[in-house]
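User: Let's play a game. I give you a shape written as tokens, and you guess the letters that built it. Ready? Here's round one.
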């Protein structure tokens, strides 16, 4: 049933795929996993044999719809990893060029947390930007930030000098608003003003510095002319479009899976989410399906396809789209996973920066990794097997670790931690 429809999907386009998928009413959990992996580009198909090109990088972006940004750099920054996991070692200058030079293929926005998104997707986030603009951002000298003269001054400075960093803007306003210790991030007044304008959509990042600082500029100078020319969507239209991006990126999933992709939450948005799903079902974009073993209403996207097997192998960032939604990961792959970065060291179970290791259609291990750049070593600070992991796990993991070390410019891999997989990996590396 589902397997037969996959070839029609690939060959005949969305409408034919929708017709073909109407025959699909039941999927096994294994089939659903393979659909999800194909949708995410993690089923082992199409990995380039040579250096990745901008075209192949763009294919990853088109498939995923966003790349989450995170500043933790113990291994590699979060937004760099998903492309590596899908197409192997690539020149990260591709991403920097895509996001830092006009015409930009990616711009920064608050999507699934801070993320790179295509310029057209940025235009779908106005409802969130308006919500951020109305929040309480505190006050400056007794005047709420939105009304404080410094906000207008910062806006004017960016207009005149942009792109500028928060450090540069603070230098201009330091005498009037010196740095104070307030809050976890200890933001200066200039940084708060810049972030307010960023979250509310007036500014975005034109590029990042080598030290990962945003260079803020007017959004109208960063977006492509084509994106700027798009009409402003209604909230309902925007939610529908974002839900469809999430559904396509998942291939198969629940309403909660699709909504979580862009963090579409809250009572005010719930009716729009329900309306979007109903419309997509009516239009043939989503097909309700039963996934045996997944005890929630699930939907198949019309462009999804079911490979006969999944042969991919990938180390996945804690911020990879495949593992965004922890409940989905547990229900679909049987993996209970959490990021332990903010867990006190003594209470961590698997380590600080732990990557799930995908082999075929299962998560078979998790590995705590650190790039020791000074020593030129990729350190395996912990390696743990998942239940029923195959005997080949250690050998497959070593190949992935060697590939990652080469991509990061590290000359060696060393096991320095514990776990039931650490010994076999260390023994194999010693041979």
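Assistant: Ready! My guess for every position:
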């Amino acid at each position: 049933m589902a397997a037969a429809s996959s070839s029609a999907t690939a060959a005949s386009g969305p409408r034919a795929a929708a017709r073909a998928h109407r025959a699909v009413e039941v999927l096994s959990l294994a089939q659903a996993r393979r659909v999800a992996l194909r949708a995410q580009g993690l089923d082992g198909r199409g990995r380039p044999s040579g250096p990745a090109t901008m075209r192949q990088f763009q294919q990853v972006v088109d498939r995923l719809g966003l790349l989450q940004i995170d500043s933790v750099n113990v291994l590699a920054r979060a937004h760099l990893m998903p492309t590596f996991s899908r197409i192997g070692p690539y020149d990260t200058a591709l991403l920097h060029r895509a996001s830092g030079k006009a015409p930009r293929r990616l711009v920064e926005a608050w999507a699934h947390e801070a993320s790179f998104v295509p310029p057209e997707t940025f235009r779908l986030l106005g409802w969130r930007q308006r919500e951020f603009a109305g929040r309480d951002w505190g006050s400056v000298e007794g005047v709420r930030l939105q009304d404080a003269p410094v906000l207008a001054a910062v806006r004017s400075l960016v207009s005149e000098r942009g792109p500028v960093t928060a450090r540069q803007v603070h230098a201009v306003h330091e005498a009037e608003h010196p740095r104070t210790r307030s809050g976890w991030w200890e933001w200066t007044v200039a940084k708060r003003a810049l972030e307010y304008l960023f979250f509310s959509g007036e500014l975005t990042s034109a590029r990042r510095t080598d030290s990962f600082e945003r260079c803020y500029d007017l959004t109208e100078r960063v977006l492509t002319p084509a994106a700027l020319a798009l009409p402003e969507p209604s909230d309902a239209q925007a939610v529908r479009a974002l839900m469809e991006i999430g559904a396509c990126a998942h291939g198969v999933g629940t309403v909660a899976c699709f909504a979580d992709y862009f963090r579409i939450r809250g009572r005010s948005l719930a009716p729009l989410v329900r309306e979007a799903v109903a419309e997509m079902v009516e239009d043939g974009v989503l097909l309700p399906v039963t996934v045996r073993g997944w005890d929630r209403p699930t939907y198949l996207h019309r462009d999804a396809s079911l490979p006969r097997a999944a042969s991919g192998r990938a180390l996945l960032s804690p911020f990879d789209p495949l593992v965004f939604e922890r409940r989905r990961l547990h229900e679909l792959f049987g993996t209970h996973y959490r990021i332990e970065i903010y867990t006190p060291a003594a209470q961590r179970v698997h380590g600080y920066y732990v990557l799930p290791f995908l082999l075929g259609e299962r998560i078979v291990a998790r590995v705590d990794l650190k790039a020791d750049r000074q020593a030129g070593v990729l350190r395996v600070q912990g390696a743990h097997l998942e239940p029923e992991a195959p005997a080949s796990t250690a050998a497959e993991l070593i190949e992935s670790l060697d590939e990652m070390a080469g991509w990061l410019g590290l000359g060696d891999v060393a096991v320095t931690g514990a776990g039931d997989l650490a010994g076999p990996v260390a023994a194999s590396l010693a041979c």
